[in-house]
C-alpha cells in the first residue's frame, strides 16, 4: 500500500493506541516525532530525527509497534526505522526584521551546520572528548538577529542575550537559566542563538539535546571513556541543554546532576530548555529539579495578535520572492492571525498550505479557501492542561486533609473518600494512565485506582449530592 490519506489515517489510529497503552508521558517522550513515510510490500517505514531515538524504539517498542501496525494496516509483516535529515520546521524565531530571499520550494532542505569555533583538543584528549565538545548540530538560521520579538517572549530574549554576553570569570547573574515553552514558541531558536553568539566571542560552548546527552554518555560508558566525557564537559564555559523533558535513566540523570552542580559552582553558565516547568518533569530526579528551580525560570507564552501578524507578513513576503504573482489579501492574513494562535510553527504551516495550494491548483487565496485548507489549525484553543497536583490540592483543601495524609497508607474514612475522589478526578480530567495515577498517590497499584474510579462513578450516578460536589470540584480545578 502506497502512502496516502488512508495510510495516514491508519497511522493516526496506531498513535492513538500507543498513547492509550503507554500513557501520555511515554508517548510524548518517544513517539511524537515518529513519522510514517510509506507502507509497501508489507513493511511500514517510519522515520525519526536521531539515531538515538531509532535505537531506543527498536530496542524497546519494536514488537509492540509491529503488533499494533498489523491490526491497523493490511498485510503488515515488519516495520523499519530510518533517520531522516536534520530538518527543523520554521519555528517561532525564524523570522527576519526584513523579508529575506527565501525560496519556499526549498523550505525542507536541511541547513548546513555552522562551523564550530571551539578550542582544538590536546593530544591527550581522546575521540570521545572531541565528540562531546562538538555537541549537537546547530542551525545557521537560528540567531538573535532574526528572532521575532513580542510581549510573550521579550523577557526570554533579554535573558538569553545576557547569558550569551557572559564573559569567563565574570559573576553569573542567574544560573541556571531555564526556558519553558510549548512546541514551536522559539526556545530552541534562543538556545542556538546563545550558542552562536557565545562561540563567536571565543567561549567554549556545548549545545546538546537531552537525547544527544544520553547517547554520548551511554557511548562513553560502553567505550570505557566516561571519565574523559565528564572532564571535557565540565571544562567548558557554557552548557546548553535542549528538550530536557526527554532525559531518562537514573545513572544518566545522576551524571547530569553532577555536571550541573560542577558548572554552577564554578561560575559557568548553564541554560536549559523544556516544554514544562522543573516541578512537572516527572521522569527527572528530584535533585535535578531542585537545582533547576533555583535558577531563573522564564516562560515563553503564545504570540499575541500583533506578533502573529508580523510573523505572517514576513512569511508571505518571503513567499512572494519565490512566487512573484502570489497575492494574499490583508483580510486573509487577519483571519489567519486571529484564528491560528498556538505557535509560530503553526503560522508557518498555514502560510505554506495556502501558498502551495494556490500554486498547485491556481485557486485564489480567499477566506473560503483559507477556512477549508486550515480547518485543523482553526480548532478552538486547547483547554488548560490539568495537573494531578492541582486536583490533590483542591480536594485536600475541600476536605481539610493534608496532601501527605492523602498519599499515605492511612485507611480512615476521612482520608479514604477524598483520596478516591482525587483519583477519580485524575482519571477523568487528565490523560494519565491508571499506573501513572497510582504512582502519584503514594505508589499504589493500578487496581486500587480502578476501584476508586468505579466507586466514585457509582456514587455520582446514585447520589445527586455527590454529583454536584464533583461538578463543583471540577470548576475549582479548571479555574
Beta content: 5-15%
The helix tally amounts to 21
- The CA-CA distance between the termini, in Å, is 48 Å
CATH class of the largest domain: Alpha Beta
Overview of this structure, please?
The protein is an alpha/beta fold. It folds into four domains: 79 residues, 2-Layer Sandwich (GMP Synthetase, Chain A, domain 3), CATH 3.30.300; 174 residues, P-loop containing nucleotide triphosphate hydrolases (Rossmann fold); 69 residues, Helicase, Ruva Protein, domain 3, CATH 1.10.8; 91 residues, Orthogonal Bundle (Chromosomal Replication Initiator Protein Dnaa, Chain: A). The protein contains 21 helices and eight strands. Strands 5-6-7-4-8 form a five-stranded parallel β-sheet, with helices on both faces. A hairpin with a 2-residue loop joins strand 1 and strand 2. About 9% of the residues have low confidence.
Layout of strands and helices, then pairs:
Elements: H1 5-22, H2 24-30, E1 35-40, E2 43-48, H3 51-60, H4 62-72, E3 78-83, H5 127-134, H6 154-165, E4 177-180, H7 187-200, E5 205-209, H8 210-222, H9 226-233, E6 238-242, H10 250-265, E7 269-274, H11 286-293, E8 296-299, H12 305-322, H13 330-339, H14 344-361, H15 367-373, H16 388-399, H17 403-407, H18 413-429, H19 434-440, H20 446-462, H21 464-478
Parallel strand pairs: 2-3, 4-7, 4-8, 5-6, 6-7
Antiparallel strand pairs: 1-2
Helix pairs in contact: 1-2, 1-4, 5-9, 6-7, 8-9, 12-13, 12-14, 16-18, 16-21, 18-20, 19-20, 20-21
